Structures are given as structure tokens and as C-alpha cells.
Amino acid sequence: MRADRLVAALLFLQERGQVTVAQVAAELEVSERTARRDLEALATAGIPVYSQRGRNGGWSLVGGARTNLTGLTADETRSLFLTTGPAATSPEARTVLRKLVRALPAPLRPAAEAAARAGFADPTDWSRATSTAAEPHLDALQRAVVEGVQVRLGYATPGRSAGERTVHPLGLATKAGVGYLVADTANGLRSFRLSRVTSAVATGDPVERPDGFDLAMVWRELAARMEERLHAATVRVRARSDASAVLHRLFGGRLRMVSQLPDGGSELEINGPSPEVVVAQLAGLGARVEVLHPPEARHELARLGAELTALYTAEARR
Predict the structure, then answer these.
(1) pLDDT tens, residue by residue, 160-207
(2) CA–CA separation, 94 and 85 (whole Å)
(3) For residue 197, how far is the Cα from the chain centroid?
């Protein structure tokens, strides 16, 4: 017997005041036999539920009793529904929201419903690609974390074909809207970007959690390692004033001002995982940005320029 179904039955009963077995069965999408068993289970668990036979009978809460399952304040309720409402694009998510609304005390419901309608989430980016489809194995990984079972994980890093490994899922984290799985592996604690997971199959073997594991603390340590990799190399550039906005969009906090130049431009330092990666991002800015240091970054940019010149000059001649 599922606990979430019993909660849903209680909330439905609380909302209607009196219900029939048939109404509960229709609401929960179960058989009438299962609905009756759920209502009896509530009574057995000590919930003041009773049944009344007859034409106008049904199941009710004794004396109109109410159960506040949330304990939320008005501000907390508004914040919750402002956040979850726009994300409720699937039937399952909308069902969860309805259940949450029913769990609220009556004075809080109108504000919660208004907050849920106050936003909208478009699941596609400007290229019309569906961003939510980037994490197709999220549900399987969530179940693995909650149920504490190991997973055979398929994972593809950029520039490499997908490989498989068995991991111990320990938690899920989100950074700037990007989801990650935190798991223990044969090589220690690791984070896996959910959009790069190609498969996730539960093995049935129990997860072995490290002693004293704290998800927030571990995530901060893993994030610090990623930050170190993003700052492994520094490239110094001279940028024209009309390149400033683009550079800030490209590099954000990895961009540092060194000095302001008399012509309105600036000398900047840019951090990245390697000079080659930084140069590849700068190449599209053309003469608006000149790489000053290190020499290998200048050489790589010259190589890219020669390669492009050869390709498009030959095409122009044809």
C-alpha cells in the first residue's frame, strides 16, 4: 500500500468533507476495492475517518476534522508555488500541485493558486531545442538516490564516446539550472552532469554511503575542484571597447580587468581550462580582441586563422 496514495485519499476527503468509495477510486485512479481498503487503512492508522451507510452515506472526517500536512506560512506558501507552478508542465506535476493546494489551510489556498498561475516555463530554448529532454534519466536517478540502490551509469564526456561504470548514487545537485548526480565510484566521489548521462540502470545492490556523508559539504568540495579546472590557464588580451559586452557574456567571473587603455579599450586576463579552449571562444571576435600572452595561445589563434583563410580563399577562387 503506497503512503502517497493514502495521503492523497486523506487530502481528497479533507477537501470534500464527505466522499463515496467510487469518488475516491475515480480521483486516485484505482479500483473501488483498493479505494475502500485505503479508507479503512486511514481509520486503522488513527485518522478520525468513519463511514456511514445509506443513500446519503459515505466516508467523512469525524466532526469535520482537518489535518494540516504542510505547516507552511503564507510567505513560504507563496514562494513555493511561485517556484513550482511554472515548472508544472507535466500531468504528474500538476497532480502534485493540486494535492499540495488541498493540504493547505483554506485561507492560504487562493494565494497559492494565484502564485501557481503567476509564471510560465517554456521548455524550449531560442533554437527550439527542448531543454527538459536533456535530462531523460533524471527520474531513474532520483529513484536510485531515494531507494539507495547502485546504478550502472552510461556517461559521455565531450569529445569521447559514452562509457559505463557502476556508481553509488548519493544525491542530486543543481548549479545555475544545470543538474548533477553526486555519486561514489571506484575512483572516489564524483559529480556527473545529468545532460551527459546516456543510460541509468539500477543493479538492485544497496548503496554504500561514506561515513558522515553530507551532500552540501561534498558538493562544495566537488564544485571547488571544477572551479579550479576552469581557472587552470590564464590568457591575457587587449580588447577594443566594442568587445566588452561580448567578453563579459562569454566569460563572466573568469574575466579580470588589468588596465584601462587610453583609446577606451582595456587589457584583460581570462581564465579557462586551457589556452586552446579560451582561444577557440575568442576566435569569433576577430580583430576586436588581440591575444597577448601566452605564446601558445597566439600560435593557436594564428593556426586557426590560417586554416580558415585557406578554406574560404579556395572557395572564393572556385
Answers:
(1) 777 899 999 999 988 877 889 999 999 999 999 998 999 999 999 999
(2) 8
(3) 14
Residue 153 in contact with residue 167, Cβ under 8 Å? yes
* DSSP character string of 228-253: HHHTSEEEEEEE-GGGHHHHHHHHGG
Structural contact between residues 64 and 54, judged by C-beta atoms closer than 8 angstroms? no
| Grid coordinates belonging to 84 | 513550482
Chain-centroid distance of CA 31 in Å reads 35
Q: How far apart are CA 37 and CA 21, in angstroms?
A: 10
Which pLDDT tens digit goes with each residue over 264-281? 999 999 999 999 999 999
The amino acid sitting at 265 is G
Query: Do 189 and 171 form a contact (C-beta atoms < 8 A)?
Result: no
How distant, in Å, are the alpha carbons of 10, 21, 27, 47 from that of 40?
11, 11, 17, 10
Provide the 8-state DSSP code for 54.
S
Which residues are paired to 289 by β-bridges? 239
**Residue 253 predicted with pLDDT over 90:** no
Q: How far apart are CA 162 and CA 154, in angstroms?
A: 6
Q: Where are the beta strands (DSSP E) in the chain?
A: 18-19, 49-52, 58-61, 149-155, 163-175, 178-185, 188-193, 197-206, 233-239, 255-260, 266-272, 289-293
